[in-house]
Amino acid sequence: MTDGLYFTYSERETELLAADFAGVLTPDTVIALSGELGAGKTAFVRGLAIGLAYGGTVSSPTFTIVNEYHGGRLPIFHFDLYRLSGTYEVCDIGWDDYLGRGGVIAAEWSDRAADLLPEGTIYVDIGFGKFGTNRVLRVSGAN
Question: Which of 27, 67, 70, 119 is the most buried if burial means most Cβ atoms within 10 Å?
Answer without folding.
Answer: 67
